[in-house]
Amino acid sequence: MAELLIKNGIVYDPMNNIDGERMDLAVKDGKIVEKVRGKGVKIIDASGMVVMPGGVDIHSHIAGAKVNAGRLLRPEDHFKDVEVKTAVTRSGVGYSIPSTFTTGYRYARMGYTTVMDPAMPPLKARHTHEELNDTPLIDKASYPLLGDCWFVLEYLRENMIEECAAYVAWTMNATKGYAVKLVNPGGLEAWGFGRNVRDIDDPVPHFNITPREIIRGLCTVNQLLKMPHTIHVHTNNLGKPGNYVTALETMKCVENLAKGDKPAIHITHCQFSAFKGSDWRKFESGAEEIARYVNKHSHVTLDMGQVVFTDTTTMTADGPFQYILHQLSGNKWINHDVETETSAGIVPFRYRRRSYVHAIQWSIGLELSLLIEDPWKIYLTTDHPNAAPFTSYPRVVSWLMSQAAREKVMKKINRKARRRSLLPTVDREYGLREVAIVTRAGPAKALGLTRKGHVGVGADADIAVYNVNPERVNLSKKYKTVRRAFQRAAYTIKEGKVVVKDGKVVRSVSGKTFWVNVKASPSIIEIAPTLQREFEKYYTVRYENYQVPTHHLAVSSPVLVKAGV
Amino acid sequence: MVVTLRPKRLFKVPVDAECLTPDIFAGKSNREITAWKLWEGNRERTLGKLFEVEGESGANPKEVSIQIFGDVRKVRRVGARMSAGEIVVHGDVGMHLGEEMTGGRITVAGSADSWAGSMMKKGMIEIKGDAGDYVGAAYRGSTVGMSGGTIIIHGNAGNEVGCFMRRGLIKVYGNTGQFAGMHMRNGTILIQGNSEGRAGAEMTGGRIVICGYIPSILPTFTIDSVRPRVKVEEEEVPGPFYMSVGDLTEGGDGRLYVSQTRNPQLGLYEKFL
Prior knowledge:
- The structure holds 2 protein chains of 2 kinds.
- Chain A is 34% helix and 22% strand.
- Chain A is α/β, with parallel strands linked by helices.
- Chain A folds into 2 domains: 3-53 and 454-505, Urease, subunit C, domain 1 (Roll); 55-447, TIM Barrel, CATH 3.20.20.140.
- In chain A, helix 5 (150-157) runs antiparallel to helix 6.
- By secondary structure, chain B is mainly beta.
């Protein structure tokens, strides 16, 4: 295989403590190596450019039944954004929910090479993997939704932790999943009966179990199985004023489960869970309280869920929340119940600068990432497409790096929101090292992807080169230059192959699909008859057909995990 | 300045002619115009390959007049997003005529296919023949239809005239299909001929005037009064009309005027007056 040498780049690799050093990177057979020699070496001159590991996105809804339903719901979204096919790329459509191929191309153009789809109803695993197979240029994985699954609820109610672990391990294998995802734990099951849970101690109707027990139970299970990622939690009461209390309670409830300095819980799109105030009129930011807690504790990681003022499509498994959004906005709405597992909702939404609530939401995301001191604890996401499409990441990067860029937006937002925002009091500006942490090294570490997020020897040769020179340009003043550079990577290298050059896709390769192959003790066999019986009783799909075979994945990349049970 | 276009052959697959606007033609030489790229089906062609282009374009879109002769029934999106100037089609034209136009004038001597003037913001479209479905409508899924300007159709129009209309005027001298003024928010639709029914379904504002026969009005409208005439811009349309308010399922305040003399079957509503 071809060898590659990226010369003279200004390298940011926080995992290996390389902070803007001018150095060469050698690539052989899709891996970073010590050095390459010989005649066939292809040389990329990166002098005056920033070199980073390929971007890693920890939370972005890019595939699955719900995403596709969103595509069907929004022809007008596709109409306004069309990509014409080229010699190497396929055509595609969609601004907030791009079609699969376009999703891959657009991520690669921004220098991203690994993306996690965070919400896969286990029953829809086949569909999700079919879409992921058609998403080129990026490695990906999907998190099965387990927080409202009947099996989990029943095992945890009876305190059958080992059986629950066996079930989770079986699900990871059966659905080719990567991490345990909880969405409004308990609330989605309640939504099946037209209700929701009020807080983490409100019992789920008919199951007699509280969200607290579900979160703690799955956290324990996750640790028993030695999963690479922590539990990935979308909190209860998401999107409701005053919910920062619930977010704090959720973090606190697993505090004593944490082992050492290792994170035990990931609170996702935390912006939506950091609302203060008793109603929408008294709505405020709770970012300060959350940041204070996170700064003092090491068992929590977060991602932003940054709002950008644009027209987008909200889609979550959180059915009751989507119903509230539908009522607030009056927009069209899809509501769906996934048998015994979860629910889903989709509502198109426009974030407006002049809206008080939306402007505060915009502020919360940035406040969180600026007030939390350690960038290893908070990662950049827009919860694509809920708070904004992923194509707005470069804009978010420019806001993080430049107070001037933030002030420019501040001038245009709702006046009351401007007065109440904490942002004018924050003068912190991210440097490129911190940007490299929140966009690649941090998420890779949280996900336990040892070969991603860094460019040390042995890492996958996923590399992004951005045409901006931090030695010449004042990044906090020239935020537009930064934005442009991050929008169009000078080079994106995927496993040693140049796939993007000057913001154009020059080659299409298919990425891997990661999944966790849990090797547990024979207790898995014990639950199989129970599962089979329950499947016959409750499911529309047979036990045997439910499981996604490995050959269903275009490029299967199992992560072997030896469980502690 | 007049530019004349004639198709060089009969088009069998749709031609996406977004570029046929005074805005794009303005300030370009004949050679630049003929080199402009457009799509015929899934093949990219140049304008010169598909059309015989004659005449000179002006410097300003306002001065440009595009005259199209021949069979352009497969040519779509003529005059899309145009802001000024004039387009005259001497025959029938394809779908999406004057889509999202913001000014200027389009005249069609023959008929236009569906989506004429969809999402238009300003300007004028006059169709001497018939129009297809979705005149001045919103794109599928969107809630923003025609938001200004005037569409005049001398023949008949299809279904869903003015769907999600927000402002402006649509005049149809002939008959219309079903669901005229569906989801309408504001603006006026004047139908001189008959309607196939279900006019104003889910409308929340605006006016629909039907001078001909309509089989029935929706049960979600409530009769308000009988009006001797309706004023549409400067024009006085003689009545008398039954005026109903709706659509009540949407809490709407739209006005539906239906001719009293042409619709004796609606006389039973008079007892609710």
